[in-house]
Amino acid sequence: MWPVSGVASMCRWPLNGWSKAFRAVLAFFCASLLSLPIAQAEEARLLRFALSAESPPTSYAQNGEAQGILRDMLLALFATLPEYRLEFISLPWARAQLEVTRGQADGFCTFPSENRKGYARFAARPVYVWDYGNLVYSRDNAQGGVIASAKSFDDLRDLRLISQEGVDWESENVPGFIQRYPVNTPPQMIHMLLRRGAGDFLIMSAEQAQYYANLFGYTEQLRNAKVDFIPNSQVQFHIGLRQSLPDVEQIMARIDQAMADPAFQARQEAIILQYRAAGIR
Asked: What domains sit in the chain, N to C, each tagged with a CATH number?
């Protein structure tokens, strides 16, 4: 497409000596070109994000399409950056990370570990914080008052935790004196707590607990208690772009600028509240 300045110059050519028909055609041509929006001269740059297909509600696939909190956060952020457009691919998490290292995807959202910093450039602010400082219990549990008012793990000493086997975070941050009922997956944790009553509480983000409660019909039974005594409970997810991406520093500077905007931060809070429909009680 010709630059608008060039079209304007052409349309100022002297027309003396040209036929009336030619002058009419040129006038129509100039008017048509000058009426085009300038923004059409450049197409928005595509950024391809690889997201986990297996971690609802943070990130998951539905009918093959990426869904979840991280996708919604990215859409909200880049709505303020019209010079870019997004494409999502939803994969098993190990494969999603591999796509970034191979250059088949441009970015992802994850904890900025030292290993990942070796091949990706991360935003300064987290786009989402997975808050493990949350005790989940049943409305019908007679120990609900003890759980809701707990100030330390010692207050929970006589209660049983529904735990997830093989989770290093839990083994490193929950004292060994806490009684455990181990299961394999988050859905099993919810079933054992809210249907079977196999334990008194579990540790899970309010968003994830609400997701599974809605999925399995336990919404009315679900209760959450926000606590501040669980170590390493704030797991930050940052936007990361592969370091081999052209102009990665310029793109990340725009992302950092947009994320610092109070309007976007308000939108972040609104998205979390949508996924945390039951609230913290």
From this structure: 4-41 (no CATH), 45-128+238-275 (3.40.190.10), 133-226 (3.40.190.10)
